[in-house]
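Entry 14. Ran structure prediction on the chain below.
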Amino acid sequence: MGERISTLTNRLGGRFTSFGAFLEGIGRPAVTKAKFVNLAPTDQADKAGVYSEALLFATTDPKVNNIALTGPYGSGKSSIIQSFLKRYRRPSLHISLAAFVKEASPPGDKEASTPSLKVSRQEIERSILQQMLYGADANKLPLSRFKRIQSPGVLSIFKSLYIMCGLLSIWYVFKKREAIISGTFFDPLEFSNWPNFTIFGFSLLFLWAALHKFYVASFGLSLKSISLKDIEIRPASDNLDSILNRHLDEIIYFFQSTEYDLVIIEDLDRFEDAEIFVTLREINGLVNANAGVRRTIRFLYALRDDVFVNTDRTKFFEFVIPVIPIINASNSIDMVLEQGKRLELDGRLDRQFLREVSRYLDDLRLIQNVFNEYAIYVANLETDDENTLNANKLLAVLIYKNVYPRDFEQLHRGEGNLADILGRHDELVAHEEVACKAEIAEIERKIDVAERQTPSDLKELRQIYAMTLVQMLPANVNSISLDGQSWIALHSLVGHDAFEQLIALPHITFRDVYSRGQRTDISALQNEVDREKTYFQRKAEIESKSEANKSESLQRIRELRAKIATLRTAKFNELVRSSADRVTDLFDGFGEKGELARFLILEGHLDDTYYQYTSLFHSGRLSPNDNKFLIQIRAFFTPDPDFQIDNPNEVIAAMREADFGQSYVLNVKLVDCLLNEASRYSDQTRRFFEFIASQFEGCEDFLEAYYATGRAVPKLLFRLADEWRQFVPTAIASKRSLSHITQLVTNLPERALETLARNGDEFPDFVAAKLSEILALAPDLAPERLERIGFEVRDLPAIGKLTGIVRFMARRGLFELSIANVEHIYREVMGETNLMAFRECNYTTLRSLTDPALIIRVERDLDIYLSDVLLELHDNSGEDAAAITDLLGREELDEDNLREFLGRQTALLPALEGVPEKLHATVLELRRITPTWDNCISFMGGSGFAAEILVAYLDRKDVRAVILKHSLRNGPETLPLCQFLVNANALSDDSYREYVRALPNTFKNFPKSLDSSKLTILIEERKITFSKETLESLDVNTDLPVLFMAENIEAYLTDPGMFGLDDVFREGLLQADIADDDKRAIIDLMDLNTLTELPKRAALIGPILDRTNVRISGIDAAKARSLILNSRPVETQISLFNKFHSTMAVDEAREVLAALPYPFSEITTGYHTPRRPRSDENRALVQWLETRGIISSWSEGGGWFLGDEIRVNLKRR
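Output, structure tokens:
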């Protein structure tokens, strides 16, 4: 029943409280955006009334004396209490220990709960006791031993009058003491004596009041100690550790004398001392148990959740109210954005920065204070209505100021963690410079090694091809040759100058140890090594790879040197990031919240420009860097060129005139100011340029730094080039020539570039030689500037990545003619992909392009194109006839180059039309024309005709094979060619025979000065008309007359008497290749009586007679014997013997048999049996021998035992 009443009471109290708050809100002014917000706890933190309802329940429940409001720091516990007190109508005592922090506590960590906050328990309890006792009116605690100054009230004037009257009355009574003692003072006892009675009564009353006052005051006295000379007496309670326990009577008296029923204690958890809670709980119990306290006293603690471990807090407190934090690291961004919106900073602050930095801010009051200070700082720093300050950096500085207040204070004196980190600037720059220089040295070492390696790689490539070539040659070869004249020893082949020319040939000549020379085919050499790539392609790859690596390394060196030049002006956070390990120890000094400092510094929000946000600017003010610069030069020390100067005009004003003619002027910021205000500082600028001209080498470090970060580079270079005529030659001769010339090309006005180019070739030549490196330093260079210099690009592939420049220079024709350049334009600019056509028929391919830019450039320097492109393309052998004719028709081209080019081509010109006559012989000599009779006739008709060239051309087998497919016309236009062919004694016999055979007509006489072989061919091909005169014109000492007669034997036999030939000539005819019938006819014309005397003639006539099988009259036994015995072979002899045996007697026949070869010579008389193979001639022989009785008999066959031969049975005697 009691609980229901209590619950009802709480609800009613909440409703009335809400209604009261509503009434209070009526009439309040509307809330407007304020520039500042207070940091005090708000009373609007519990709009839903959830916490107030819980607190009301706890404060009305008779069983609840100790209440805990728990939540993390910054969760809004104080605001919840304020919101509750707004509704809580009874008296409450507020005790806060939030500001009770020792002087030596860590800076900026005011809410830290670490053991470093060494605050003693007695100090904490003293603070609680003081806030409790001194918070009440002193008049309500008259008996308290803790005396306080009381201010006089309204009645104090009457009290002082009362005291004065009381003292005067006592003094008056004291003066009348004798009368009072004697009684006369009271006489008479009448009204007329009222003054004496009044004074005496007032004095007694005053004395009583005074004694009463002293008596009451004695209750507040305590005897702490009695001290004698060597003895001190102190009560035992004075040594108690707990001040609260020691003054417990004061605390009870306090609650007896006041109306407080709720004591709110905040921030007691900061000191990590659980004993103090035990003491307070005990005090609460004692107070509530005291009979003099007739109400319930409740203690409300605002604590962290982790003050008590496990379940201790639920045992300690009767009621625990958890607080959900209104801000933490995850939602602090909303609070930050709200503050920015309040100050209308949304457009100035970077949301990403706010989002990131808010993760480190979890205290709403801290955030509010930062933006309060932001409003004040902005109002003071931006007085000219120009938002020149970086709002993000200002906010970062203020966050740093609020989170690390002590470090911020020390920063103004150049001390503290941030000052130490900023002081490491020079050290970090030096460290980075050393690291960059070390890397540059290492890269340069690698470049040097690579440059030495490239020749080694090329040598290895040569060795591979040389070894393969040696393997293709026969054993015992000791030298080879390109032309059969100059010889290269195999052991010196790799290093020979003609190596590359040699391996590109299809055939070479080799010589063995016996000095015998032979030709061999090596056309498969390159395929043997690599089927995909030729030697020259692999060589180009090695050189290209080396060049690419070198280009990449040089690019890295340029980047590092540019980095060195900008280190001094680099952002501080970039330096710290690159060397974070060198400042880690300094970040440790920020304590547990060092992550925030690390974020602000490493992200560049907090750097060496902090002074712009921490102090007001005054005109003429020198920054710390400006002062440092002036101090260094006055100490005769030259600062680095990129030393930061913040107010160059003020620094210039503070410098001496002589300083501008010395190295002190070599500062980027100073020179920027001088050049941009040249009219104002004309004298200083003149001294500056004079110093550079006199000490250029010593100024190069400055120039490098200025190129990198200076703002008036074009003005600097223009004045140097204009006022110092030797600037360009000096810059080219310097070690940093590339950097200087790059800056000239990039920044010099275009007219000035033209002037420099006209003044000499030194500048354009350097740009052409170093173009790829220049463009690596200035990739955004406008190509029109290169055109102004008027040079030709030497290596387009080296700048291939810069397609805009490549296309521009290609369209303008500003490139040297080389294979690499032309191929790059063909592929990358023209977009062509047929590389085979490019390499095998280059000129033909270029002529076929629709874009004329490339061919126009080629024709501008056709002689260079021929020598440096076409002749260097070793596979360029497929040009078409039109392209070849076009080149041959160019009078300006070198004939030797044209000859070499023509010799490589495989295409044949259809005709000599369009080819200059002086090159006709070359075309035929190199066999680059289609073999036709008309082309030969044209060649003979031109001024460049050379008989030996035509002969050599026609003498080739391939030419004969083609030209002889077509008949030679018979007409007057072909007659010179026919006569030339007939008289071509230099032709080989085979060629001569074929061409003579192709002649359409015959000739009446034999040509003079022809070799006998050629005359023989004319005779055999019947190209000379047969007559007695032509026969007599032939040398009789040769076989030619006989041959001529034999070829015309029919004409001779028709009228043999006309020629008057003898038997000796006829004997020659018998040996000629004529028909046997013709030979038989010639034999009839001969005198056969000479047969017995001329056995050779008999040997010649015998076989003819045997083959013709014609009987000849006038053959006697002697003639027959000569014919038989001188003829050959033996079969012919037997055949003639069979024909002419009838002209002989038996004895004569036996003599012939005896003279015949074995076994015929055995056919005599005796007992043996000669045998002969079975044949018709042998059978005829034995038949007539048997018939004529020369042998007994003969037989043939007879079985396997007797054999299959003719057996001759001889007569016995």
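The radius of gyration is 67 Å. Will compare against last week's run tomorrow.
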